[in-house]
Amino acid sequence: MSTTSPEKVPDSDLDIPPKEAANSADVDIDTFGPAPDGGLRAWLVAAGGASITFACMGFTNSFGVFQEYYTTHQLSSVSPDKVAWIGSLSVFLQFSGGAFSGPLFDRYGAWIIRPAAILYLLSIMLTSLCTQYWHFMLCQGVLMGLSGSVLQFPTFAAVSQYFDKRRAAALGIVISGSSVGGVVFPVALSKMLNSSQISFGWAVRIMGFVSTPMVLFTCVAVTARLPPRKTQFFLPAAFRDVKYSLLVAALFFSFLGMMTPLFFLPTYAVARGVDPALASYLVAILNGASTFGRIIPGVLADKYGKFNVFAIGSLCTGVVVLCLTPAKSTAGLVVYAIAIGFSSGTIVSGGSAAFTVCTDDGRNLGTYLGMGMAVGAVAALIGPPLNGALVERYSGFLELSVLSGVMCLVGGVVAFVAKGWTDKGFWGRV
After folding, report:
1. How far is CA 203 from the centre of its chain?
2. Entry pTM
3. Could you read off the pLDDT of 80-103 as tens digits, one per residue?
4. Is the N or the C terminus of the chain less surrounded, counting Cβ atoms within 10 Å?
5. Sequence ranges of the domains in the chain
6. How far apart are CA 115 and CA 331, in angstroms?
7. CATH class in words for 36-226+233-419
8. How is 138-173 classified by DSSP, letter by letter?
9. Which conformational region is residue 39 in: left (phi greater than 0), alpha (psi within -120 to 50 degrees), or beta?
10. 3-class SS at 206?
11. 65 phi and psi angles, rounded to 5 deg
12. Burial degree of 119 (CB within 10 A; 0-12, 13-18, 19+)
């Protein structure tokens, strides 16, 4: 008769409450087994992630509509570069806040998204009441950015815990929610602001009502699979890894260039004589194409390498951004919006997936991703205002497209260089 020694009894058979075991600092994560890479629980977490990117990044990706509207209405006396600071600050805080929200998830779990959900919905409603520049900066810039960060990064980290071989595809699906939101919000806002009698306040509040069920679903669906990490809050040693530091640099340069079309494509289209309502739809077209640019490369990244897809996406985005000014007709601008949407979609999803290659411990994913995105967020902060200053200084868009396009090309090159410090080298599928 065979017996089982106490040392080999599975955790599920031990007389230890599951919650207590999961919260123990000494729990061996190997006892939780490999990531399921599918199943109801995993796909519910992915669906929750897609819902929150729809509500948060989708709203942020619509700032091109706000940029054009603010400069002709509430903030008509404010320069374009100062208006752009509102959106760029929100993007900066959404990504830089990952330096804190990522480690918070690794340390305390997914419950941290619930208070952030209340603050995010509050930020939308407060934006509907804004009339002055500093109002918009506080509500749409600071509060929306910070709360969005605490919603987004825990979902990215949670999805990464449930997927391994299909991680890039899952993250692509999650981030594609922002593209879907980037279609819904600009079209709805443009229609209400430019082609109806609905006031600005009610137009924004309606968008808040649309976001509410998506945010609440995320609060219920997203959970952590692994126990929390009880060691350091930050992991500064990550930056001693050359491939991680180079990947962060690549993301910085790519972010510096890729934000340009999101912020200035409608303004450029209006300058070319396009109707403001139709110009606002270009943001929706861009984000619609970005949906495929985030899912398809994600599937390819699992097969051909996450670094490879991220680098190629940055290079392609740089080439397309450089082609902004030759697009002059309405048809040309629509084609351009599709091209830049597909190529730039690879950067966020590809970059997020590439960070997961830098650590083997799933409990560190939130921290690695958050710290890296925080550095990239600095580029998202300074890029749009810098481009706005170029537009005001030169009264044109050529200088803007050249600077932004070159930055994306540099990001792609640095991403390829980072491959040289991976286990598989420059020619490996990593």
Report:
1. 24
2. 0.74
3. 778 888 988 898 888 888 888 888
4. N
5. 36-226+233-419
6. 44
7. mainly alpha
8. IIIIIIHHHHHHHHHHHHHHHHHHH-STTHHHHHHH
9. left
10. helix
11. -65, -45
12. middle
